[in-house]
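The methods section describes the discrete structure representation at length, but only in general terms. Since the whole study asks how a given chain folds, the encoding of that fold should be made plain. An entry of this sort, consisting of the sequence and the corresponding backbone structure tokens, reads as follows:

. . .
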Amino acid sequence: MPHINLLPWRDQRRKESQKKFLTIIAVNIVVVMLILYLIGSFYDSLTAGQQVKNNYLGAEVAKLDSRIVEINDLSQQKENLQRRINLIEELQSNRNLGTQIIDEVVRVVPAGVYLTSLERKENLIKVVGRSESNNRLSQMLRGVESSYLLERPTIQGIVTGEQNSRLLSDFTMHFYVKPFREIDTEARAQ
């Protein structure tokens, strides 16, 4: 008996089913690839946006850094100017300091004390002289201590002697000129 296939529709149906299955798989693959592409594009756009923000922030930080450098330069210039101003003020106040020292020494030297030598080395003043009595020297010490310009008096030595039938004592005294800021503060207070 010859072999006759009475059911060819089953083979056709199986082939159609395979075609449908392959078509569905292909469509799914295309849809998944499209979805993956869209997700990748979305994240790429987020990354690009963040990169733009980072670049902007980096540019702003660079501007601020340059401003900080300018501010530091200005601060340094301000400090230099302040030092110069202070130096000029000190020089201005010390311009008449020699005269002020002589005037103050005249004010603190009592009657009966005679100065033979006055020597200044920076802030140290060395006085050599003669005195009629030690009380006059102590009065001079008190005068130097109460002075707005002079400070820290010390007597180096007292030697008694005779001159012109009067008993005079030779003495050596040191005292200091107050620093500029202390003089300025005390002068403003008076």
Observations:
- The chain is about 65% helix and 25% strand.
